[in-house]
Amino acid sequence: MEHPADEGQDDADIVHETVREKVISRTCEWCGRRIAPRTKGRGRQRRYCSPAHRQRAYEVRTAQARLERDRAAGTARLEDEPVRELVERTVVRTRAVRAAPWERPGMRVGGQAYPTPEPVLQDHEDDEGEIRPRELQRLLVRTAAAIAQGKLSRREVERITRGMEAVQAAAHRARSTGKL
Fold first, then answer.
1. What pLDDT digit, counting tens, does each position of 18-48 carry?
2. Which residues of the chain, if any, have pLDDT below 50?
3. For the whole prediction, is pTM greater than 0.90?
4. What is the domain partition of the chain in residue ranges?
5. CA–CA separation, 17 vs 128, rounded Å?
């Protein structure tokens, strides 16, 4: 029994085609570098130029799948949700002051101790409104001890030094004019 589609066809009209494909060139799916195609044997063609690139591609694929699964479950941050962070900052400043090896705090050069400071009287001025020289001397001795012990900052010591230089200049002028 002949089929209608076969009508008019002879056995000589049947054509068999065989198609073969051969990969000429291929690039790595991770980095785009050219990969040499397989020339012998059967099996799949290589998709990556190295095992490291195959591993990276796998990690990206599986990470994306895990992220989508976690977002669907509500356990991962949504893409448009902002990232919040809380930062605690602690700053510690330590100032180390070193005395010269021959000086100990509270000692003069040569190993002599500063005299113990005497209590300063509440009334620093006499009746004329001037500071008494003895009280000023005691104050200066206490200041020297504080500097030697590192109790004053660099700025405070510079300010005191400027004041002492002004006193020395005034004493020099007084001597040169004959007032002393």
1. 988 777 888 999 999 998 887 777 778 888 9
2. 1-2, 104, 119-126
3. no
4. 21-73
5. 129
- Rounded-to-integer distance, Cα 179 and Cα 166, Å: 17
Strands 26-27 and 34-35, by their bridges, are: antiparallel
Report DSSP state, residue 125: B
Residues 6+ apart with CB under 8 A from 22: 37
What size, in residues, is the chain? 180
The 10s digit of each residue's pLDDT in 101-121 is 555 455 555 555 555 555 444
What tokens does 69 get? 């699964």
- Map tokens 């490291």 to a residue: 52
The contacts found for 108-115 with CB under 8 angstroms, 24 or more apart, are 108/148, 114/141, 114/144, 114/145, 114/148, 115/141
